[in-house]
Design brief:
The complex is a heterodimer of chains A (330) and B (550). With 330 residues, chain A is mainly alpha-helical. Chain A is built from 13 helices and 4 strands. Helices cover 35% and strands 24% of the residues of chain B. In chain B, helix 4 crosses helix 5 and helix 13 packs across helix 14. Chain B is globular and about 75 Å long. The chains are: A mainly alpha (330), B alpha/beta (550).
């Protein structure tokens, strides 16, 4: 077990390194000049060169990458456009000249919103997706099954910005059932936090729940015919109890795996949902930084998203091993 | 004695495709008294398992129509509400299923499953009480109570079946339905498990309905037997009478289908179509002077061990240790052993599918040890050496027609054109006893025995000189097994084939083979001419195996 975790952690570091390097490399290959952007439209060539030098952009790519990794581990001092030093403690993700703040601070400012949104949406996905899938499987072939399957198909085919605006109109502006969506920190008012996020949770959860509902239905139907489910019934368990205790357990592993991927993706930011509901989260930060050619922020958000995917996929694997004692962690 | 399981005029129909009713059981009446063991025998599809499931009311009511009556300890099962059935199941009537690995939950410890079986019917019982009952029951079936915290996959096949029996008997039911409880087990283990079931049944006065396709096993274990065919009981009586003096030809065919240690080797086995075959006995193929066709010398096979915490390379697992074998031209070598003995690995080495860690493989005088690594060499070898596999469901590609399956080796090894190949395929089908107009069908349209015939046709397509058959009949019913064995023996004589016949069934090996080699734990414990090994075995292990065989 300990050996597995160590191996897995090393693997994760390797993946993250590769992703950082790729993001770095891609950006240098792109036809845009961060120095020009940092300096502003009124700079002349000489000024741009000076800024380029002070930002270290005239150094070889490999050296810049080395600086970046060094900063990540030990922190470093970055030179601002005007030549003044900026202290960036570890883990330093670089300094955003566009936002005029260290990337880590930019992320830290927005992360609580993304965390709140993702966590709530995951709860909706699990409850709605798995609940619908299991119910449909237990009533397979009936009208309930067809109705639920159709319901999830709607979720899979509808777009967040359509559903989001439609529900917002219905529940917020037409009826006033909910306040205008947005992010209020949990610490300042838990009630406002929940009320403001209720709609984003529902929309993001519903749209993503479809895959879960379909997968859990199929998995349930498959493991329903396992011998051990029949044994449980032959032991005198009610059909429902046999399915809840044994069929669901047998169906669990692929769902956990998928949930791990889903969680990783959501924690890396949900741009469309954030935009629709005006939540200032990681997704918006990432897209804005790409639009503005803000290299340090782009690399930082890419790294953050990859980090969550790697961590949640590893957690999912551990959980699968807990669920099924036959799984050997190698 | 009064009957605790009373089945009267039971009929079961399933709703098939497009709502058509398929009748699986028709007008079956059976009675089992307390303490009695009733055998229910028949081929796959005879409806015997359906009767067993109906006794517990386990059929899906939405897709099954059940008529007649099933009384368990005086309570009617047919038409009873689910709540009443739940009270009966596991308490008054319990079931031991065939494949314990599939029938036990892989997610829960055996102790937890036993405790659940107890507590379902003892609502007031505490967790501690459940654990105590589970531990006591495990001890009773010969498993240390300390292993209650282990999962089913950590036990051997025989131990798992003991756990199933323990779980079935934990509430001291009146009736146990045992559906092929030992079919997947080696003979020695099978005997131990059956002895245990019989002993516990006698102890508690439990009635046992013993469902099996194997007349030999039933004969040893039951007082009375009912024989089923196509959903009906064709004959019922004391087991002793059915074995020696059955009135129905079908019963006689089932009885004669499985070779025993007393059957005349090489004789034709009885089948349902041919209940009393007459053939002159086939003498063992003569020993020919000269070099062997195939030879294994000092073969050792290691597999990499499990990776633990340490960084060091783990100890390899040795599957085969210093095994030497010879297959003479035109003769059949039987390779016998229990699961885990290394017999299949040895066969794979000879087929060029597994690289030996040490030792030499020769075919027709040529060193082919490297065939597993050297694609060109393996290809050449497969021109002369072909395989027949155990599982006729897994070894045929379900998306290919029979013609495509049978002609694959021809495409790889000959320059025949399409028409020639089709003609050859048709000839092969005829040779293995299938109608040639079935070339365009897919495997799922055939029964298990027919599929095994297709597998044999594929192996014969390139006219190989050596056929390696790895447990070719162990997935088949005894009656179908008899047909396939008859076919293999016919083809062998007709084509002058050399055969490596791998099996765990001593009686089958004795019937088919000229020479026998016995393996245990990766080591060759004994080898020699058939009569010598069976009449005067030199190793203790062979003697033990012979004592357990039917």
């Amino acid at each position: 077990m300990t050996g597995y975790v160590v191996r897995r952690a090393l693997q994760a570091v390797a993946v993250l390194l590769a992703i950082t390097a790729t993001a770095f490399g891609l950006f240098f290959a792109a036809p845009s000049d961060p120095a020009l952007i940092a300096c502003g439209p009124k700079c002349d060539t000489g000024q741009v060169e000076a800024v380029r030098h002070s930002m270290g952009l005239d150094r070889p790519v490999a050296a810049q990458f080395g600086d970046y990794l060094g900063g990540l581990v030990a922190g470093r001092t970055i030179t601002d456009v005007d030549g003044s030093p900026i202290d960036c403690p570890a883990p330093c993700l670089g300094y955003s000249y566009a936002l005029h703040q260290p990337v880590l601070d930019a992320i830290a400012d927005r992360f609580p919103a993304t965390l709140s949104l993702a966590a709530g949406a995951l709860v909706v996905i699990v409850v709605l997706g798995v609940g619908v899938g299991f119910t449909a499987a237990l009533r397979r072939g009936t009208r309930t099954d067809r109705l639920l399957s159709g319901f999830t198909l709607v979720g899979a085919s509808v777009q967040i910005y359509f559903l989001g605006y439609a529900l917002q109109y219905l529940l917020v502006y037409a009826t006033g059932a909910l306040p205008v969506p947005g992010y209020t920190p949990f610490g300042s008012s838990p009630g406002a936090w929940a009320a403001g996020l209720a709609l984003p949770w529902l929309v993001l959860g519903f749209v993503n729940a479809a895959v879960f509902a379909r997968l859990s239905r199929v998995q349930m139907l498959e493991s329903m015919h396992e011998g051990y489910v029949r044994t449980a019934r032959a032991r005198g368990l009610s059909t429902l109890r046999a399915h809840l205790k044994y069929t669901a357990r047998g169906a669990g592993a692929p769902l956990v795996q998928l949930l791990g991927l889903e969680a990783g993706a959501l924690f890396g930011g949900a741009f469309i949902t954030e935009t629709v509901f005006g939540i200032d989260g990681i997704g918006k930060l990432a897209v804005d930084s790409v639009v503005q050619n803000d290299l340090p922020t782009v690399v930082g958000t890419v790294l953050l998203a990859a980090f969550f995917v790697v961590v949640f996929v590893a957690l999912a694997d551990l959980l699968v091993a807990r669920l099924d004692p036959r799984v050997r962690l190698v | 004695m009064s009957a605790v399981l009373r089945i009267r005029d039971l009929s079961v129909s399933f709703t098939g495709a497009r709502g058509a009713l398929v009748r699986a059981v028709e007008g079956v009446s059976l009675e089992v008294a307390a303490g009695e063991v009733l055998g229910l025998v028949g081929e796959s599809g005879s409806g015997k398992s359906t009767v067993g499931l109906a006794a517990l009311g386990l059929h899906d009511p939405a897709r099954t129509r059940i008529e007649g009556s099933v009384e368990v300890a005086g309570t009617e099962v047919v038409g009873a509400p689910e709540s009443r059935l739940r009270g009966l199941r596991g308490s008054r009537i319990a079931m031991v299923f065939q494949d314990a690995l599939a029938a036990l939950s892989p997610f829960h410890t055996v102790g937890a499953q036993l405790a659940e079986a107890y507590r379902v019917h003892h609502k007031g019982a505490s967790r501690a009480e459940g654990r105590e009952r589970a531990a006591a029951m495990l001890e009773r079936v010969g498993i240390a109570a300390a292993r209650a915290g282990d999962y089913p996959h950590q036990f051997s096949g025989g131990m798992r079946q003991r756990v199933m029996i323990a779980a079935a008997l934990v509430n001291a039911p009146d009736v146990v339905v045992a559906d092929e409880p030992t079919t997947a087990l080696d003979a020695r283990v099978q005997r131990q498990v059956l002895d245990l079931l019989a002993e516990l049944g006698r102890e508690n006065g439990t009635a046992v309905l013993f469902v099996s396709h194997d007349m030999g096993v039933v004969g040893d274990f039951t007082d009375r037997t009912a024989v089923m065919r196509n959903g009906r009981v064709v004959e019922e009586g004391t087991t002793a009478r059915l074995l020696t003096d059955a009135s129905h030809p079908y019963t006689r065919a089932l009885t004669g289908a499985a070779p025993t240690l007393a059957t005349l080797p090489g004789s034709r086995l009885a089948t349902v179509d041919e209940p009393a075959p007459v053939t002159p006995p086939r003498p063992a193929a003569p020993v020919v002077d000269g070099p062997p066709l195939a030879e294994l010398a000092g073969i050792r096979v290691e597999f990499p061990g499990r990776r633990g915490l340490s960084v060091r390379r783990p100890e390899p697992v040795v599957a085969v240790r210093d095994v030497s074998l010879r297959i003479e031209p035109g003769r059949t070598l039987g390779l016998v052993g229990e699961s885990g003995s290394g017999k299949s690995t040895t066969a794979r080495v000879l087929a060029g599918l597994q690289r030996p860690t040490a030792g030499t493989v020769r075919f027709d005088g040529r060193d082919v040890s490297d065939a597993a690594r050297d694609t060109a060499l393996r290809r050449e070898l497969s021109r002369d050496v072909q395989l027949v596999f155990q599982d006729p469901y897994a070894s045929l590609n379900p998306r290919r027609t029979v013609e495509e399956i049978v002609t694959t080796p021809l495409r790889a090894h000959t320059r025949m054109d399409r028409d020639e190949r089709r003609e050859r395929a048709a000839g092969l089908l005829k040779q293995v006893g299938l109608a040639e107009d079935r070339l365009d069908r897919y495997p799922h349209e055939f029964s298990g025995g027919q599929r095994q015939r297709i597998g044999i046709a594929r192996a014969l397509a390139v006219r190989p000189r050596l056929v390696i058959a790895d447990e070719p009949v162990s997935a088949l019913d005894v009656s179908v097994q008899a047909q396939v064995l008859n076919l293999l023996m016919d083809l062998r004589d007709e084509l002058g084939l050399s055969l490596l016949f791998v099996s765990h069934d001593l009686a089958v090996v004795r019937h088919v083979c000229d020479e026998v080699a016995v393996m245990r734990g990766g080591v060759l414990v004994e080898s020699g001419e058939r009569d010598q090994v069976f009449e005067a075995p030199s190793s203790e292990y062979t003697k033990e195996l012979l004592a357990a065989a039917y």
